[in-house]
Specification:
The structure holds 2 protein chains of 2 kinds.
Chain A: H1 2-16, E1 21-29, E2 40-43, E3 48-51, E4 57-62, E5 65-72, E6 79-85, E7 89-90, E8 93-95, H2 104-109, H3 114-117, E9 123-127, H4 128-132, H5 143-147, E10 153-154, E11 164-165, E12 173-177, E13 180-181, E14 186-187, E15 192-193, E16 200-206, E17 220-226, E18 235-241, E19 244-254, E20 258-267, H6 269-276, E21 284-297, E22 302-317, E23 321-339, E24 342-359, E25 366-386, E26 389-409, E27 419-421, E28 424-438, E29 443-457, E30 460-465, E31 476-482, E32 487-503, E33 508-519, E34 521-524, E35 535-538, E36 546-559, E37 564-581, E38 597-613, E39 618-632, E40 642-643, E41 650-659, E42 664-673, E43 677-678, E44 681-687, E45 690-695, E46 701-702, E47 706-719, E48 734-743, E49 753-758, E50 766-772, E51 778-786
Parallel strand pairs in A: 1-7, 1-8, 12-17
Antiparallel strand pairs in A: 1-4, 2-3, 2-5, 5-6, 9-16, 10-11, 12-13, 14-15, 16-17, 18-19, 18-51, 19-20, 20-21, 21-22, 22-23, 23-24, 24-25, 25-26, 26-27, 26-28, 28-29, 29-32, 30-31, 32-33, 33-36, 34-35, 36-37, 37-38, 38-39, 39-40, 39-41, 41-42, 42-47, 43-46, 44-45, 47-48, 48-51, 49-50
Chain B: H1 2-7, H2 9-16, E1 23-27, E2 38-45, E3 51-57, E4 74-79, E5 84-86, E6 88-91, E7 94-97, E8 106-112, E9 118-121, E10 124-125, E11 132-139, E12 156-163, E13 171-178, E14 181-182, E15 190-193, E16 201-206, E17 217-225, H3 227-240, E18 258-260, E19 269-283
Parallel strand pairs in B: 2-19
Antiparallel strand pairs in B: 2-3, 3-7, 4-5, 4-8, 6-7, 8-9, 8-10, 9-18, 11-12, 12-16, 13-14, 13-15, 13-17, 17-19
The chains are: A mainly beta, B mainly beta.
Chain lengths: 787, 287
């Protein structure tokens, strides 16, 4: 690791170059001890400041003197301090959550113009508190469903896995849970996400202007951070809903030094469904999640975090079909301060996604298993050079093992052979450096570069095709064996990142960003919505990595003391080497999958508007996206550009939350979007008595428009309790709440798809059908207890 | 229920997991009619009986009329020895060859339409048939499914025993006839490749997935077909039976094997195939 050594040397040399004094420390929630991510530290005298990082750490270097600082964080009371800075000072700050929504406005509003002044474009931050205030499907608080209400984020349809960001396919989102990659973010095929809201602290979605520390996916980064666990006192949450029940416990192991958080949830649709329909008895279907985190503050310079997640979906229908899929991740992190100005983090990460499916018994029994496993080592350094420059650099190595599938007969009288698709191994190495520089009071710039290199390595047998082109398995002319670690194919390149901010006034700014991203593994799916068994294909001898360039420009303006925040952003994205598949391709358990793949180009562009009211009794936002995403692949749609499956011309959301009093809170959301592209038949023909639709124009038609209204009401009762509850000592405040929700209030049958079939009675008559995933209003009720 | 489950366990599972169900409505839609293509349907087998080639055209998707026929064409089946057999148009658009094919020969179809457009199919070889050892009936564990049109006395299933010859690259289609009438709806198409079963004895194989009652005469035809034929039939089934749910393949054109010699962008739809067949019959409930 020559690279790491160099980075260490650089770190050490920078740490010594101190000619200023440094104010640094952690910003925390006073009640729970959780680090606050993205809190602003503003120094009045220099009209500038710093923002706390993912661990709540901040650092500012200043010439010695007396300074007035203000710390602000949305939803917390601002903290103001006067400090006499003669030498390096460590100032750990604790902020108090703001329960009285109205009073705080005057104090915090003035400095709360971060959206305007920061370099971030296309970045959305949501904390769990605000997500919980949005009406939730069947009362199940869901992060990814809530993201869909933001501009530039959409989905193929109800119940589709994953989400699409600015015209990117679902595999172009880097989804991180405490830094570990999550390959499948959905439960029940997309109706729910794998993130248990009780275990999550904060999430950030980068739609553009992606910082240099992230790489490996083309379109977005969703960085989800789990709760660290209350370091002050024991507490927890119990939730009982229609879909699942949840329990979360957290508390100190050593007060203020070591704490834990553990959470679990399990769904139980399979328990109740047979009550409605007795035919369903004896079947099994549920999902579960377990989240855990342990954090240990060794001393002021060193902190350790261990986090883990395991979740899966499991189902079984009698002896006909059974399936399982799930993610498991584990992350060990070490924060170390080399000095007040050099913050570092080292991570070791393990992530596994696996699935199986099969027929449990009988002579047609079979079992099929597949997995992707990766281990990651990361080092990241933030050097707070002076108030004008923050340098970030680091390196990362990821080791992948793809096991696309082993299928074999499941019983002795089974007549299936064992089929094993050879495993693939790969290594992804990257290093990056970036600087965030405040050039003047008006102008700031972030420039960075990332270099990534991907090696597809043996042991593996690789087919050689006639003329080197994998047209069909019939074109195989030879097989080459690669030994352990031998490089089969490698790719690499630079990924420049740039962001500019010109602040006209405290209220107005203009931003520009550019980023290039490289993606070395892509998901190929020949179904409309991705399924849990879709295949991840790494770049290799016959598959190139995909590249995307994105440029975006934004105008940001706050009104009325920053209570109203508005933004307009436009983006243009250009894609190279997107993976697609041939018509009627067979992708599963295919040991020459390269013969079914095609690569093409794409373009996506759009306009995003958002206006948000962030404070007061009534909060919420309106967002609107006008967008286009098109793909061109030789061999598909007569080589012409066609709209992607997730191209939505108009996409609008209105979200509102109204706090009536301490007891009642109401929420509503309305979504409207253009229908998704779909292929309609040009004509029909008859073959052996079967009427076959003739599809020519890929995605030439559209389903009718989609719109939906959701409402919710939350009743919170607060009771002081003196009682002892199990092992918890006299909790100060118990809070229990009921949330009632209505999804699809006016029961619209939103079409998921339109499909064509011959009539059952007369094959000569052909008919069109509309499939609606939900055909009615869906109520939900959840009971929560916080202690 | 049973069919639905078999079709799409994923969608079913997702909704079932929430105690919900989806809904489907028939709708009216205006579709512009695309260009007209020739459609070829025909098989030649080793059975010594007349074989037919049907020539029709595509029509508007909602036309609800029989497919327009292509009459007055010159249709020839040629083999690899240079023999050419001119087919006789016995009914409008139906061209008949009075005999069967010969094992080991390679056949292709040549068409000259009345307007002079020339078409030719990719040659296919008539392979050695793989015999069905036996077809037999047994009492089924499944209950008759009334929604699928099964009657309460449909309590038997029909199974076959066969042996898949060693060596990858074999493709099969099975057809099931009840009292001489073939089941031929989209779901009834049954094709497999030997990828998962190569060289294995296949015993107690339930082809029809249907239930029968006593005295039904059930014939199973086992056809050894080419890989392009297998791919064509599989695609036809995908686009006609497995449609609509989020986990089905999006619609795509199906390539046939009859190309237009005059204009490569106007190839015919459909398939002219060659199959090596063997059949076995059982009378249900009769020992």
């Amino acid at each position: 690791m020559r690279l790491l050594t160099i980075l260490f040397l650089l770190a050490a040399s920078l740490a010594q170059a101190q000619n200023k004094v440094t104010l640094s420390g952690y910003i925390k929630d006073v009640e729970t001890g959780e680090g606050l991510i993205g809190a602003a530290v503003y120094v009045d005298e220099i009209k500038s400041g710093a923002v706390s990082n993912f661990y709540g750490f901040y650092s500012i270097s200043l010439t010695p003197g007396v300074y007035n600082i203000t710390i602000t964080y949305l939803g917390y009371q601002a903290v103001m301090k006067q400090l006499d800075l003669r030498a390096n000072i460590t100032e750990n700050l604790e902020m108090e959550p703001d329960r009285k929504l109205l009073q705080a406005v005057e104090i915090t509003a003035e400095k709360a113009n971060q959206k305007v002044t920061s370099l971030e474009t296309g970045v959305e931050r949501m904390d769990i508190k605000s997500i919980k205030a949005i009406p939730q499907f069947m009362g199940e608080v869901d992060i990814i469903r809530s993201l869909l209400l933001l501009p530039g984020v959409s989905t193929v349809g109800e119940g589709a896995t994953g989400f699409n960001v600015r015209g990117g396919n679902i595999d172009q989102n880097l989804i991180l849970l405490d830094e570990a990659t999550v390959f499948n973010s959905s439960h029940l095929f997309g109706f729910f996400s794998v993130f248990n809201a009780d275990a999550v602290k904060d999430l950030t979605l980068y739609k553009g202007g992606v910082p240099a520390r992230y790489g490996g996916r083309l379109s977005s980064v969703l960085d989800v951070r789990q709760k660290e666990g209350n370091s002050k006192e024991f507490g927890g949450t119990v939730g009982i809903g229609l879909i699942s029940s949840r329990l979360m416990l957290e508390g100190p192991i050593i007060k203020d030094r070591m704490s834990f958080m553990i959470a679990g949830r399990r769904s139980y649709g399979d328990i109740f469904a047979p009550l409605v329909n007795p035919d369903l008895k004896g079947n099994q279907l549920f999902f579960y999640d377990i989240n855990a985190k342990l954090n240990y503050k060794i001393n002021d310079r060193d902190r350790l975090f261990f986090s883990a997640y395991s979740g899966a979906d499991r189902f079984k229908f009698g002896e006909e079909f059974e399936s399982f899929w799930g993610n498991t991740t584990a992350t060990l992190r070490w924060n170390h301060l080399f000095g007040p100005r050099l913050f570092s983090n080292f991570s070791a990460i393990y992530s596994d996604y696996s699935y199986s499916l099969g027929v449990p018994s009988g002579n047609q029994a079979f079992d099929w298993d597949a997995s992707i496993r990766n281990t990651d080592l990361k080092a990241n350094f933030s050097y707070f050079l002076d108030p004008k420059n923050t340098i970030e650099y680091g390196a990362q190595g990821t080791f992948y093992r793809f096991a696309p599938g082993v299928a074999e007969g499941g019983s002795d009288d089974s007549f299936f052979n064992k089929i094993e698709i050879e495993k693939e191994r790969a290594v992804e190495l990257s290093a990056y450096i970036s600087n965030e520089q405040k050039v003047s009071d008006q102008f700031s710039i972030m420039y960075g570069i990332r270099y990534s290199h991907f090696l597809n390595v043996g042991p593996r047998n690789v087919f050689i095709y006639e003329n080197g082109i994998p047209t069909s398995d019939l074109a195989i002319i030879d097989t080459v064996s690669y030994s352990n670690g031998e490089v089969i194919a490698d790719f690499g390149g630079f990924e420049p990142r740039l962001a500019l901010n010109y602040t006209f006034s405290e209220r107005t700014s203009m931003k520009l960003s550019y980023n290039r991203m490289r993606q070395y593994l892509q998901l190929v799916s020949n179904t409309t919505a991705a399924t849990p068994i879709d295949v991840w294909v790494p770049a290799g001898k016959y598959v190139n990595p995909a590249i995307a360039d994105q440029i975006s420009v934004g105008y940001f303006r706050n009104f009325k003391e920053n209570v109203y925040q508005a933004s307009v952003e436009v983006y243009y994205k250009n894609y190279q080497d997107l993976l697609d598949y041939k018509n009627n391709a067979e992708l599963l358990l295919n040991d020459n999958i390269e013969t079914e793949l095609l690569q093409g180009k794409g373009r996506a562009y759009g306009l995003e508007l958002k206006i948000e009211k962030v404070k007061g009794q009534f909060t919420g936002w309106i967002s609107y996206t006008l967008a286009r995403t098109e793909i061109q692949v030789d061999g598909i749609n007569l080589d012409e550009y066609y709209p992607s499956n997730y191209d939505k011309t108009h996409d609008m959301s209105v979200v509102g939350q109204y706090t009536l009093n301490d007891k009642w809170q109401f929420g509503g959301s309305f979504a409207y979007m253009t229908g998704r592209p779909i292929t309609y038949p040009d004509s029909r023909y008859v073959y052996e008595g079967i009427t076959v639709p003739n599809y020519v124009n890929r995605n030439g038609g559209r389903t009718p428009d989609y719109h939906r209204l959701d409402l919710s009401a939350t009743l919170t009762s607060q009771k002081k309790s003196e009682k002892v509850f199990f092992f918890f000592k006299r909790p100060e405040m118990w809070e229990n709440s009921w949330t009632f929700s209505l999804y699809n209030v006016y029961a619209r049958r939103n079409p998921y798809s339109i499909y064509f079939q011959q009539s059952e009675d007369n094959p000569q008559i052909t008919e069109a059908y509309r499939l609606s995933i939900f055909g009615s209003i869906i109520p939900g009720i959840t009971w929560n207890l916080n202690f | 229920m049973k069919t639905y489950l078999k079709l799409n366990p994923f969608l079913f599972a997702a909704l079932f997991g929430m105690g919900l169900s989806s809904c489907t409505d028939k709708i009216e839609l205006d579709l512009p009619e695309g260009e007209r293509y020739l459609v070829v349907e025909g098989w030649i087998t080793n059975q010594d009986r007349p074989h037919q080639v049907k020539l029709t055209y595509t029509s508007a998707y909602f036309s609800d009329a029989p497919a327009p026929v292509a009459s007055g064409a010159e249709v020839i089946i040629a083999d690899d020895l240079g023999n050419e057999n001119l087919l006789e148009e016995t009914q409008p658009g139906i061209y008949t060859l009075p005999v069967g094919g010969e094992i080991g020969r390679t056949y292709n179809l040549r068409i000259a339409l009345a307007d002079g457009t020339l078409y030719e199919s990719t040659p296919e070889k008539l392979l050695q048939p793989v015999p069905i050892d036996t077809a037999y009936w047994a009492l089924s564990d499944d209950e008759p499914n009334e929604e699928d049109g099964e009657e309460p006395d449909d309590i038997y299933e029909v199974l076959i025993d066969t042996n898949e010859p060693p060596g990858l690259g074999d493709y099969y289609q099975w057809r099931t006839f009840l009292n001489g009438v073939e089941f031929r709806e989209p779901f009834d198409i049954f094709t497999i490749s030997d990828e998962f079963v190569d060289g294995n004895p296949i015993l107690g194989f339930n082809i029809a997935s249907k239930l029968f009652s006593a005295n039904d005469t059930v014939t199973i035809v086992q056809e050894r077909i080419s890989r392009p034929a297998y791919e064509f039939l599989a695609a036809v089934q995908t686009l006609t039976a497995f449609v609509g749910s989020p986990f089905d393949s999006p619609p795509a054109p199906i390539d046939g094997n009859v190309r237009n010699l005059s204009n490569p962008k106007r190839n015919a739809l459909g398939f002219f195939g060659v199959s090596a067949t063997d059949e076995a019959t059982t009378i249900v409930g009769v020992e």
